[in-house]
Amino acid sequence: MTAAAPPAPPGSCAPPAPPAAARSLTPVSKVLKLCLHALFLGLLALSAGRAVADAAPRAGWVVAACALLVAVYAAGVRAPAVHRSQRAGALWLAGLGAAWAGLLAVSPDGLWTAFPLYFLELHLLRLRWGVAAVAVTACAAIGGFLAHSGAVTPGAFLGPLLGGAVAVATVLGYQALYRESERRRELIEELITTRAELAAAERGAGILAERERLAREIHDTLAQGLSSIQLLLRAAERALPEGAPALPHIARAREAAQDNLAEARRFVRALTPPDLEHGSLAAALERLCAAVPGPRVRFSLSGRPRVLPTPYEVALLRIAQSALANVVRHARAGRAEITLTFMDASVTLDVVDDGDGFDPSSGAPGSGSADGGFGLPAMRSRAETLGGLFTVESGPGQGTAVAVTLPLPLEHLEYTEAVEAL
Question: What is the C-alpha separation between 326 and 372, in angstroms, rounded?
Fold first, then answer.
């Protein structure tokens, strides 16, 4: 046969066509095809050789029939249509069978060629038609043997029938092994793809965590220190009398501290989550409400807004995203509202919906779903990491209210008061 395996029609015993990248024949398949060619041609050569060596009365006809079979076989092997079309393959098998019937009519040795014909019929035809063709071929071999020998023996029936049964069992067993091999190959490819996706997700999560950590460190150390230096220099500048020689140096030092503070804040903005890159926390929450599919979500702001430490903004934004995800997935709510409240020493985020609600004592909403109810524990963990308080109020048919309160750190309050005093 040729190097390209024909696509298997529905119900065929041939294996399903593998993907384009894997359609080249394996070494085992190539060896099997070469063995089939060698078996077919060797049996024809043996039939012709015996007829010539024994000086059979119809030796010329035997050689001619063998030559015709070789020509028909070679034409089918080299014809691409035989491997692409089941109809073309069936026509080729019909021509090959007619030529073989001619050989069987002039020589009893022609029945040997029935065995490779079994494999060809099972390979090119649908399973039920292939088995039927094998049965017809076996009957023709039995009839040819009986016609030439004239004696009815058990071997005349058992040989062709057992050969056909062995061919069917061999092909079916090979196809079962092939399908199992394909399933294993697909499973391995899926595992490799999943492992690559998991590694990419872990790298992405690690990058985001490191970005947030660096932003927090820069904000809490460098930025705060530069701000303190700028405030001290400003105080020193006010304490010195007019025309003091140190005033120009203090002014340059204050400008340098201010420039470096602006650079540090630029680094912090570059390292914050994408939702916070283009504005304040309030603006990010407002954009989040506008992008939620399903229920109508309204955002409201209470109190005097102030700049929060980067970890606080990130935590509040992630909690709001997770809470709205629960509203969309589980609550079946028509309305929801997010309220961000700034107080003197703390900031509060409330997410309220009018959905189905749930019993907080029985577990998180959607605990039977694929997420396993992980959203609420994750939100609670974020709040408690920053020393905050996380509460959930809900009931069946009463909607759900999620509230998180984060106390602002003392140094941040002192810094904010100093800036406002200036």
Answer: 12
